[in-house]
Amino acid sequence: MSTVFPPVGRRRALQGAAAGAVVLGLLLWWLLPLGEDPPSGSITFSTGTTSGVYYEYGSRLRTELAEDMPGLDVNLTTSNGSQENVARVAEGRADFTIAAADAVAAYEAQYPGSAARLRGVARLYDDYVQLVVPRDSDVRSVADLKGRTVATGLPRSGVRLIANRVLKAAGLDPAKDLSAVSEGIDTGPEQLKQGTIDAFFWSGGVPTAGLEKLADGFSFRFVPIDAALVAKMHEQDDTAGYYRATNMPESAYPTVQNGATVATIAVSNLLMTRTDTDARLTEWLTRTVIKSRDGIGAHVHSAQLVDLRTAIYTDPLPLHEGARRYYRSVKP
Q: b/e map of 122-145 (b: 16 or more CB within 10 Å)?
């Protein structure tokens, strides 16, 4: 049975169209600053090694930024990781970067007062420390690395910072008790596969492409890092308070973990900039970071964890004024 609706008068139709336009305008205003031209110019964004999550996230964020700010040229640069990234932004060699919270705190401890010119944009996702050995290795704990050849990360990387602290907490001196080599996620997996190293440390979002690739054709496992070691790290260094004991989810590397979690360490990653970065640009960039979570997260699993409710917690850095403006604008 069909229902015939009465014809709508011209005046009523025009009124409905006008009301619809108002509603649409309000929705657009909520998503983007209506009537405001997007910022333009150029920025440098420091990422990480090409096989790590920093680089993949940065590459996909650049694509999203190009849609929202077509006049903004984003220059991506690779780096050894968190420690180098913090230094680049602090010294004006990069405008934005991602770095782990412990690396920010360590930089401030090394160069007192340096954090005064650094600002947070968003808390993104957690890094997990991943200590990797061949599946048939007899290394069962961090202490078992004594006398082994171990990749502890590239110089000035976040991995190197954490690896040395983990080894120290386990009673090992990286310079004396083992043969520490400077290999990162770009080269460490292949070195392990070839047998030239016995283990390697990695700290990053999960899953990391470099380890997913290694799992395809090579059998390895993760060595647990228990909560007692994390407690010792807190005791040994005042800037180690950003580490927390946790479990790497069983879904991180299903073919490796076989349904089991792995005891390890987590540390938050921060998107950061400097105090002198333009506030309007930072506000727009923050909006894009939050808005693009699902799009980037479809390719970079860690990005799915970006959350508006936790993004404002950028400790040890205060929020940049531009980021603060955005978060205030969307506050319920």
A: bbbbbbbbbbbbbeebebeebebb
